[in-house]
Specification:
Elements: E1 14-20, E2 23-28, E3 33-38, H1 52-66, E4 71-77, E5 83-87, H2 96-111, E6 118-122, E7 131-137, H3 138-151, E8 155-162, H4 163-171, E9 179-185, E10 189-196, E11 199-207, H5 212-225, E12 238-243, E13 258-261, H6 276-280
Helix pairs in contact: 1-3
Amino acid sequence: MWWPERFSVLAPASLNVGLSPGGVHVVDAQSARQWHVACAAAGTPASTTVWRDAVDALVPCLAEAAEGKKRNVRVHLGGRLVRWQLLPWRPELHSHSEHAAFAAARFREVFGSAAEGWQLHAAKVPPGQATPAAAIDKELLAALQSGIAAAAPAVQLQSVAPYFSAAFDRWRHRLPRAACWFVTVEDDCISYGLLLHRQWQCLHSQRRQGDWRQQLPLWLTQAALAIDAAPRDPLALPICIAGDMPNPPAAVPGAAWNFQWLARRPVRGLTAQSGQRLALGV
């Protein structure tokens, strides 16, 4: 929906990659193989190089997976590698350059000079709606390009997208039209947004600490209170959750919130494990 990907009818089978500070996961659904490498960077503070170990671990994985054949690579980035903002509608902006300048200014206001080193992408939405915008380190994108080129001559980077946006595109047809929360859960990050009549009202990411099932109701309530169109009881809305977990999370005893797990069909021949849904973008 909001992240462009280029696909060719004649493109070779793709290798799907999930990349986060905690590690890298590669899925080759065609041959029913997968690789996972954990990285020590999972516990380090967020920085422009928190992804370095994961990118380095990706290169030998791709070399082994490609087997010298022509392959395209689709990369989905974990929440700690993406910064989000929901840009308000500005009717006075018309050209692409005006919208880009506005997005850059908003990221600088929130994140300071660090935003100068980020590649920004804003969704295409109908006029009058707030626009989801994501920022990714330019150094990370360059490292992915060079690392994938080093893996094998015939391997090419096809697309890079945040896991949150890829998962939303995958599940949007299953979401209630009137109102709902959409949430993605990863090993080290929770990302969530409120949709009212299919329009985004807020968009946030949180570093995971402790049991996310206990923390999520508070985060959603705080996010709802900060917007003008806040529902009276935000936890009464459906909370649709996709996540990078091999098994559905257990319900919290005594919890009253409307938890809906977005379960996917298993990939034939592959055992479900952490990192797999991140790699597949579901």
